[in-house]
Specification:
32% strand, 19% helix, alpha+beta
């Protein structure tokens, strides 16, 4: 198949701009754009590997962590790209939902939504727990909470000062 030369424009990237779509390794060299996608090479090739912008929305952040990347290769599944949102603590009576990011350094624990807690399987890089809160008494930490997030005491200690 021949593509007219006025449809594609050959460009060069010196690196850190594009990554391969299949393994997220940086690409340096010639590339072209065709049908709103980028491919490596100096001329159209139907079998050319696709590249994507390194900071683009197509990046699956589950694959950028070496631990989840190895898991995805071994299990032949792609980690979910859902972003877990952090919410501010409200000091009303009821359950609060916490999530700890697995394999993060430093440790990252956040308050999150009930919806995220109920859909924990959508966030494979996190462990979740729910904890009861009463303004008069504070947080009621259970053994189950400590088992899910061992650092929960330290994390919640700063809120007991408020």
């Amino acid at each position: 198949m021949r593509i007219p030369s006025n449809i594609i424009e050959i460009k060069y990237t010196s690196g850190n701009e594009f990554v391969f779509s299949f393994n997220y390794k940086f690409y340096q060299g010639y590339y072209y754009e065709f049908n709103d996608k980028f491919f490596i090479g100096r001329e159209f090739n139907i079998d050319a590997p696709e590249i994507i912008k390194a900071n683009g929305k197509e990046i699956n952040t589950g694959l950028t962590d070496p631990k989840t990347f190895k898991y995805s290769l071994l299990s032949k599944t792609k980690p979910n790209n859902n972003k877990l949102i952090s919410i501010p603590l409200d000091f009303k009576v009821g359950f609060k939902y916490l999530a700890k990011q697995i394999a993060s350094n430093p440790i990252r624990i956040i308050f999150t939504t009930k919806e995220a807690f109920l859909k924990a399987t959508d966030y494979p890089g996190y462990v979740f727990t729910s904890i009861s809160f009463e303004p008069e008494f504070g947080f009621l930490i259970t053994e189950e909470n400590k088992k899910a997030i061992p650092e929960i005491d330290t994390f919640l200690a700063e809120y007991s000062q408020i």
